[in-house]
Predict the structure.
Amino acid sequence: MRFFRIAFIALILLPSFSILNPVSAQQNWCGEREMSQRYRNEHPEQLDEILAAEKWLNDNARLTENQRGPRSNKVIPVVFHIIHLNGPENIADFQVLDQIRILNEDYNAQNADLADVIPQFTSIIGNPSIEFRLAKKDPNGNPTNGIDRIYSSATNNGGQSAKLNPWPRNMYLNIWVVKQWNSSIPNGVLAYSQLPSTVNSPQAADIDGVICLSQYIGSVGTGSIYYSRTITHEVGHYLNLEHTWGPSNDPGLSTNCNGDDGVSDTPLCIGSSSCDLTLVSCGSLDNIQNQMEYSFCSNMFTNGQANRMVSTLNSSVAQRNQLSSAANLSNTGVSELNLANFSKNRITICEGDTINFSDQSEYDATNWSWTFPGGQNTNSSLKDPEIIYESAGLYDVSLAASNSSTTKNETKIGYIMVNPVQGKFVPVTDNFSTVNSLNHENWYSNNVNNDGYEFRADGSNGHSGGNCVKMDNYGNLFKTQDELLTTTYDLSIFSSVNISFKTAYAQANGSDVSRFTMYISKDCGETWTPRWAAIGPNLASAPMTSSSFVPSGNSDWKTSQVSNLSGNVLTQNSQIKFVFENNNGNNLYFDDFRITGTYTKTAQLKAPFDGAVSRPNNQIIYWKAIGNIDSYEYQLDSDPGFASANLQTGINTALSINEGPDTQYAPSTLTNGETYYWRVRLIINGQPQVWSETWSFTVAANGVSTQDLLVEKYAVKVYPNPFHETGYISFKLDQGSPVTISLIDMVGKERLLIHSGYLGTGSHIYTVQNPNMSSGVYLVRITVNGNTLFKKIIIQ
């Protein structure tokens, strides 16, 4: 089974995307009952046929209602008809794909919020096992993406007459998207469909399906998470589900206790427009979280509802049984392997981190051959592999997806950006003179919506005519967002940071309220904090232009600055991200990116890591370069108070802001088996500053780093380092051996036993998941054949 699993940023959290207010509790947002009754009133000659079909469906549903266990997968080809006048109702492809994703999660019990179902109803959660696939062939057999765009004023007159160009209902589920309703549609309606019995007649085939206002499709673009189950609810009606309170559109009436939805495991209820999970309306607890409720906290179908829908798909009423036939799936192109595709769970990572890849091939690949240059495992045959990247760089990813008869290939160039754990040196000035294409070792373009609009390298339109980065956005009619990310930078040498950059932007029109936002991450891009934004006229630096904007000179540019960043965002792997959110916008140009700052007055140690053991007796100590200082003073002693006769101390004159001989010291004497403590301080304008942290290391008993030899022999790796929730320990054995693995603290107390027992020859990987330990420095202790080795690990 193949689902759309496209990683979207939660756009509703971003201010430039509208968040719709919840529908009033007095509004009846589903129009199924009114429109079904209207059709019956307008076509009395079909009433007997409608009632007969209704009875037949209900009788057959009762025969299978209480069955449990796995169901065979039902696939339904889908076409979206976007009726538009090139306004916001002309929703983007990615919004349609997001709606398909939501449908597939909801109709396969894979929606994450299913875990929120209250305990009283978890035992009756049903899995319809219905998959929705955008058609790949139209009714004439021509290729399609399942999205039919129709330019028509009917978008302003939504209703039965706006259901233009219906594709055969025995082949496709038709979903129409319009801007607004005509005057005959009741106030407050978001969407409607009709029960299959109502539209069973061949005369009703052209109106069979779902019609919805554009802002209630999916959770992105013009949609919102709050209303993202609108289509889930309407497809329930399309598959013969009533509202939980029965065949009416009047929730909250006490008389609804006398009605029924025809499903025995949905409790009698009056219906609710609120999310009161304790509501008892007809003598028992209401199933408020049901997808056929009005509560807007819907997340489940019952088993009885699932059986009722499957029964409908097996019936000839409204030709539903033809949708999932093998012949129809072939005729609509959804049983063929049309393309290979994949996604990832992280945009960029740091060395030692893991990327989770997800197959998105269309449709029904059965074999996968992945290639991961730069990955710890360079090949995989898994459907959704997890790959560790240990070295910084840009890496391609390739997938050959196949079934019994077809193979499709996809390669994404520069798809993986792995950044250094200790970020690149600052200060930095980048005028993009070496950036001839994206992605680049210092810059990554993330086309969130996978469309034709994105950040690209521009070779001639930069400030002063040089290179720059262009957000190629002219002609974009959709509310989209795109991201431009830096590599990681080591900002720990600064006490405060200033970031500046130049932009050139002209509003496309007076309604252009596009937004440009800068975020900073302190943890290799796992979390982001907004630090600067400009919108619409505040973003503009040049006169409004309705044509494709190109800066005519330096006067079309302006400089923006984010000053005095400080605190915990200044880490050794800080990262910057710029996000452009289009809203009737034009092209944007970006140049002259700079990071400067005020250097810290506290020295920053580098190596050997604190607590390192079995170091060689010629160990050198290293610290980070700091600017605007006179010199570095260091101390190394076997006494943590730095007061013994063995104290080694000295002063290195600062040579530059680059690390070199002035940022290291080679001790004259180190005693085998001894533990040493060391620290560094800065001298500025002749004045010594505070000492750095004190780190320690222990020299090997024989003066040779047996730890290094053992770590190399067993290929021990600990990653990512630091880690927050999940870490990994890997090693190789050349012969079977008893092995013990544990985490110990810096005083040698065992905090977590990971493994104890015999292991065979070969590679072994262990996961450290959510350790119940406070943040800090620990050691991984591994004992193999009586030899004990240690690797430092930091838990954040």
Summary: The two ends are 38 Å apart (CA to CA). The first strand starts at residue 74 and ends at 84. Residues 1-26 have pLDDT under 50 and may be disordered. Residues 320 and 384 are 33 Å apart (CA to CA).
